Amino acid sequence: MTTTIIKTTTRILAPLILVFGAYIILHGHLTPGGGFQGGAVFASGLALLIVACEDRVVKRRFEKVPLSPLESIGALGFLGMALLGLMGYTFFKNVIANSGFIFGGRTPIGINPGFLNTGGTLAYMNIFVGMKVLAGLTSIVLIFFLLLGGKKDEW
Amino acid sequence: MRRALGLFAFLGFTLFLLGAVMSLRPFGEPIHAEMDHYFISHAQAEASANNVVTSVVFDYRGFDTLGEATVLFTAVAGVLMALRRKEVKG
Amino acid sequence: MNFGELFWALQVLIGLGLLISAIAAVRFKNLVSAVIAMAVFSLILSLEFYVLQAPDVAIAEAGVGACLTTAMYLLAIKNTADEEVIG
């Protein structure tokens, strides 16, 4: 699976896919998409990087990537943002919206071009869920590749 | 006998599904639209986000997303536990 | 051609593509070909979601269904035989 065509295509295409996934995660409260969709796109870019290379290259490349801590930080951060609503309100209350904190700007009502500094807890939850989804799906593909693959490499 | 039974089941399911499709509402005109109108007119002021779908998913119906995150976490943990070996660190 | 006729023509084309790719995914004997047919099915399904004005679901379907599932199937097939065994 590691021909020159696939390697060249990956070298050109993978950065574009990763940037597109990060864009979907970070602009989840403005444009279509969100944490899950952006995480899936980002994980597909990382899966392209995994599948197109040899076994030892993948091992060296993903040795220092903290996938399990990212997954745990994503889940705990999502629960923490939900628990933040318990400060006087209910679970999952959007407390940061319209408060002036980071991502706490005020959205004009009606049709507007979209401002990044809005959204309240939605932006934080998008980032945490995206982190969690990309770590989970990438670790599944990586463990499939490292445990099952690597024996016959002729196609 | 089995082929006749299979053909009968196939025809029955096809007629049932065709009847169900014929009785669908036209595209874009749901029956119960009160919640939709509330979300569309209030989401920008309450959740301060332009994307109403994200504000529904993460704010109004947050428990749904919590369950989905739990399902994904359980699936990943199950796969990693079933396939883990000593020398591989996922 | 106004918008309604174009909408229905696109619906019929997408339905035919879905049916053909699903039948191909079932009928192929080579498992790699069947997995590629499933990826084509997911891609056409994401196009259908986009036409029905649900871009969120379209992005999720294109990312998970057409890329990650295909990668997992190919990595699982890679270690086993890639021909279907008729027992």
Structure overview:
The complex is a heterotrimer of chains A (155), B (90) and C (87). By secondary structure, chain A is mainly α. Chain A is built from five helices and no strands. Helices cover 59% and strands 0% of the residues of chain A. The longest helix of chain A has 28 residues, at 121-148. The model of chain A has no long low-confidence stretch (mean pLDDT 87). With 90 residues, chain B is mainly alpha-helical. Chain B has one domain (2-83). In chain B, 72% of the residues lie in helices and 0% in strands. Chain B has helices spanning 2-22, 34-46, 52-60, 62-83. In chain B, helix 3 (52-60) crosses helix 4. Chain B starts with a helix and ends in a 7-residue tail after the last helix. The mean pLDDT of chain B is 86. Chain C is elongated, with a radius of gyration of 15 Å. Chain C has a domain at 29-82. In chain C, helix 1 runs antiparallel to helix 2 (31-51) and helix 2 runs antiparallel to helix 3 (55-78). Chain C has helices at 3-27, 31-51, 55-78. Chain C has 87 residues and is an all-alpha fold. In chain C, 24% of the residues are buried. The chains are: A mainly alpha (155), B mainly alpha (90), C mainly alpha (87). Chains in contact: A-B, A-C. The A-B interface holds A 28-32, 34-36, 63, 67-68, 71, 75, 78-79, 82, 91-92, 94, 97-98, 104-107, 109-110, 112, 114, 118-122, 125-126, 129, 132-133, 136-137, 139-140, 142-144, 146-147 and B 44-51, 53-55, 57-59, 62-63, 65-66, 68-69, 72-73, 75-76, 79-80, 83-85, 88-90.
- Number of distinct helices of chain A: 5
Largest sheet of chain C: none
End-to-end distance of chain C: 53 Å
**Principal-axis shape of chain C:** elongated
Principal-axes geometry of chain A comes out as elongated
Number of strands of chain A: 0
Helix content estimate of chain C = over 70%
Instruction: Determine the structural class of chain C based on helices, strands and strand pairing.
Output: mainly alpha
Total strand segments of chain C: 0
Helix count, DSSP H or I runs of 4 or more residues of chain C: 3
Rg on CA atoms of chain C, Å: 15 Å
Query: Strand content of the residues of chain A, in percent?
Result: under 5%
The averaged pLDDT of chain A comes out at 87
Task: Report the mean per-residue pLDDT of chain C as an integer.
Answer: 88
Main sheet summary of chain A: none
Taken together, the total number of domains of chain A comes to 1
Strand content of chain C: under 5%
**Helicity level of chain A:** 55-70%
Largest interface: A-B, 48 and 32 residues
The chain-level structural class of chain A is mainly alpha
Low-confidence stretches of chain A: none
